[in-house]
């Protein structure tokens, strides 16, 4: 019985350790093909960070970690530099704190991706994330980089009760995204996740190019699990759980009992619809 990836958000760790992985890569391929600039909102613990990690592995290393998955036979692209900015690490109570921590995050990615030393030094002299982004992206070649931003709204959600700080940070996020958009030719793919769908125009601009996938039927099952996926991919774990609930051996479990457990799961967790 394959291990469950509880708390594991790194795609390559899931695959390397042969954990349970629900194959969504056919939907991922459709998304990449149809939309170059994307946003999706989902509640916490819905797999957003694992999805971002999956995209990072695909664009960085091709299908090396995708053996046996749907996308293996579909993907033909080269590899790219992938900038992964996880805003969940930005804990701040002021706009100045946001500047400091976002700059640190951005500088770390410039170093990891081996940007030219002169670019890194020039960015280091900039005072905010937007100016750093302009400096870093303006000289890149066409389709040179992939940008993944996870939990863009964490700094905003942490300041919901302070309107002045919220609006100041929102303005800074928008200026950063303006710098990204103004250098649009540099990006092969942009993907942003968040829990909240704050006013998109105020956060990313009226002409942000972002395709909001949050309520589109084609991507309704991109995150989370359908009943069929639970039965197929978690079948052994479902059987073990049923045996534990009914205090019987796994060999004694019946389909009717499994259906009862599924009914209970439905009662407790079937509260979301994204199309």
Report on the architecture of this protein.
The chain is α/β, with parallel strands linked by helices. Helix content is 47%, strand content 10%. The protein has helices at 11-16, 25-34, 48-61, 95-112, 117-124, 129-137, 154-157, 163-182, 200-204, 227-233, 235-246, 255-269, and strands spanning 37-41, 81-86, 145-150, 187-194, 211-212. A 5-stranded parallel sheet has the order 2-3-4-1-5.
In short:
The chain has 275 residues and is α/β, with parallel strands linked by helices. Helices cover 47% and strands 10% of the residues.
List keywords for this structure.
alpha/beta; five-stranded parallel sheet; globular
Biggest β-sheet, characterized? 5 strands, parallel
Structural class: alpha/beta
- Described by the principal axes of the CA atoms, the overall outline is globular
Please tell me the overall pLDDT. 94
Q: Order of strands in the sheet with the most strands?
A: 2-3-4-1-5
Distance between the termini: 33 Å
What low-confidence regions span 5 or more consecutive residues with pLDDT below 50?
A: none
Number of strands: 5
Name the helicity range.
40-55%
How many separate helices?
Answer: 12
Strand content: 5-15%
């Amino acid at each position: 019985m394959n291990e469950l990836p509880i708390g594991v958000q790194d795609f390559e760790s899931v695959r390397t350790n042969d954990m349970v992985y629900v194959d969504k890569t056919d939907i991922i391929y459709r998304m990449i093909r149809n939309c170059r600039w994307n946003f999706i909102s989902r509640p916490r613990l819905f797999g957003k960070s694992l999805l971002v990690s999956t995209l990072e592995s695909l664009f960085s290393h091709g299908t090396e970690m995708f053996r046996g998955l749907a996308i293996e036979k579909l993907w033909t692209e080269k590899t790219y530099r992938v900038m992964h900015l996880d805003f969940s690490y930005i804990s701040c109570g002021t706009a100045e704190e946001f500047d400091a921590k976002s700059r640190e995050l951005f500088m770390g990615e410039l170093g990891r991706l081996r940007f030219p030393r002169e670019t890194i030094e020039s960015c280091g002299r900039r005072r905010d994330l937007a100016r750093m982004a302009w400096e870093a992206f303006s000289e890149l070649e066409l389709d040179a980089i992939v940008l993944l931003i996870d939990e863009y709204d964490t700094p905003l959600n942490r300041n919901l009760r302070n309107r002045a700080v919220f609006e100041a940070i929102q303005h800074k996020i928008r200026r950063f995204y303006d710098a990204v958009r103004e250098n649009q030719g540099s990006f092969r793919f942009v993907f942003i996740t968040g829990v909240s769908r704050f006013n998109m125009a105020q956060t990313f601009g009226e002409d942000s190019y972002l395709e909001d996938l949050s309520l589109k039927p084609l991507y309704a099952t991109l995150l989370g699990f359908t009943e069929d996926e639970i039965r197929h991919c978690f079948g052994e774990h479902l059987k073990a759980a049923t045996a534990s609930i009914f205090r019987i051996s796994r060999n004694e479990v019946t389909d009717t009992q499994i259906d009862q457990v599924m009914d209970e799961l439905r009662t407790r967790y079937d509260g979301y619809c994204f199309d």
